[in-house]
Amino acid sequence: MAPASTAAGAATPALPVVLAGARGHGRRHLDNIRRLAREGLVRPAGICELTPLDDGELEGLGSPEQSADFAALLESTGARIAVVCTPIHTHTDLALTAAERGVHLLLEKPPAPSYAEFERMVKGVRAAGVACQIGFQSLGSHAVTAVRDLIADGAIGAVRGIGAAGAWSRDLAYWERAPWAGRRRLEGRDVVDGVLTNPLAHAVATALRIDGGDRAEDVAGIELELYRANAIESDDTSCVRLRTAHGDGTAGEITAAVTLCAERPGEPYVVVHGTGGRITFWYKQDRLLLERDGHAPETTEHARTDLLRNLVAHLTGGEELLVPPERTGAFMRLVEAVRTAPEPAPLPGGAWRTEPGTGNGTGAEGSARRIVTGIDELVAAGAEELALYSELSDGSGPRAPWAAAAARAGARAEGSRGMTVPRPETPEGTGNPEGTGTEAAGSVELRCAGRAVARYEYRPLLAGSQSPRPYLHPVRTLGGTAVTELRPADHVHHLGVSMAVPDVGGANFWGGRTFVRGRGPVELDNHGRQDHLGWIDLREDGFTEEVAWQRDGRRLLTERRTVTARALDADCWALDFTTELTNVCGEELSVGSPATNGRPGAGYGGFFWRPPVGPRPPEVFTGDAEGEEAVHGSRAPWLAMVTDAWTLVFAGATEDTRRDRWFVRAAEYPGVGSALAWDGRLPLPAGRTVVRRVVTGVADGRLERTAAAGVAARLTGKEGPR
């Protein structure tokens, strides 16, 4: 066994290592210690297992001391490094046992089962002055740096979001391999052994590192959907959206969809979506695929630095640790969100089936496994569309009906969809209007005819580039079909139904790029935000609220917004949306659009409805015109957008609203808006109030022109404020 050498060439004695947990996943650490021992970097000094390893298991390791007493083993062997690969709920205590004895650590992921335990571990490690590496092996891949360099160089334009996908399979025996497997708690202690926090934890951790928001203080919000097909406590099929806020004022968004119930298990990956291309990273293979607009695809393979090797180099040569605890703080925010979330929703029996297993993860060939039908495609769609399972739609309805049903049930039980985690500090311009330094999400449900027809996210956690604002999503027909889309891949700043204006005195309240005369769409640091200030009235069928339109902490407008749901008949209901915008900044403002800034036909801005993309473009018509080209820019009193699954009838309900033109998209993507500034800027003198009211009929199935006209007449039968 040759001794290692420092950069200067001097021989360095091999560092004695103790491994706690040498079976199961611990066998990989055993193999790695064996490999590094042959290079003279480490010396296998001890094995901590309840049952000693036999000669076959110890082959190539010499005769390390074996004991079930971890503390005694560390002391008797004089260990410099402890590798801890034991059940999740034992991590903190074992890490502190090593730290108290001056032993450095390679601690398996997840580092702890709760954020409080994580903080306790970090505090103890720091106080002891020992090094700690967290075992996210994928973060040793040189491809991570390559991806970040490509992003920094603008290879794919501006990043729109990061998706992560993992479709693995685990047989029933996997969940029976240990008492803690698949448990949220065991004997009163947190375990949190779910698909997001353990088997496919690398998907999220890798995405966070690429995003640059991997520290605890970077987390701005978390939305979770936790499901299970197996008879376990924890989740085996789940998705999450994490929003990050970086120290430089930028923001990011990550959506991960994962399962252990795949039909055809495949390699997990992270995909970075840009305005000019994408980068796909298969993190177990260290392989990248760069796809850029106007270029041929490029595939590259990268080296990887082993984390134990890196820890040795840190101790002997001062090399920087790749995965210190503080660089996993954001991931631990996710663990805490999963820990405190409601119990995972059991999937209905019709959503999954049982087939013979492969022995994956158990060694029990032939053990049965549960498969969620269609989950492989849903996982891929979640990463591609940056959508949660409940948000995925094929135009005729939810792609995962079980997810939509569970999300609605969770919303009724908890008062909001998913979990949110406020971050400790909020950079200027991204926090709440009161400046408390935290931001709490909130949502309410609208009901009509005894059914939930819409959810209003009045305090969403969104990236600054999306011009954060309240929105309605999902909006559904009385039959349950979704008629809105959230953050679609084609325009991630489209948010169901919202008030979205691209130019209020130069501030962007629409999201995305700003159209600049002579330059075209440009990424500018000019995004505003709409903040919910409070309820004036809140009922089951609607609400009136006050909203502040702000830019860099300066309030430009105050809005009184009223939204009401009312039934029209058994198959149709109406969403009544009134906005009263008042200039409160003390000086004259004006509302503009890309059209007023030089882009013909793009006069959008105001009330905007983004329906879901379907298998073919929807039809659009008014009382006397048909087709996108004829309807776009018209001043028709009503407009209909129609598919086989649903019909939306939009009507201006005041004279001022009826004078505004309709902005319509159907071929490129479905969208309808009532434009405040079609071909000229709308002046807003100080103190002036502008009122608009749009009422939308939401119907199941296809309505022809005569029926749609009948709905429109009923929508505008009661005049609102002018």
UniProtKB/TrEMBL annotation:
InterPro entries listed in its UniProt record: DUF6807 (IPR029475), Gfo/Idh/MocA-like_OxRdtase_N (IPR000683), Gfo/Idh/MocA_oxidrdct_glycsds (IPR050463), NAD(P)-bd_dom_sf (IPR036291)
Superkingdom assignment: Bacteria
One Pfam family of this chain: GFO_IDH_MocA
Domain Gfo/Idh/MocA-like oxidoreductase N-terminal: 66-136
GO molecular function, one term: nucleotide binding
Residue ranges, compositional bias (Low complexity): 427-439
Location of region: Disordered: 342-366, 410-439
Keyword annotations: Oxidoreductase
PANTHER family per the UniProt record, alphabetical: BCDNA.GH03377
Protein known as: Predicted dehydrogenase
Source organism per UniProt: Streptomyces pini
Native organism taxonomy: Bacteria, Bacillati, Actinomycetota, Actinomycetes, Kitasatosporales
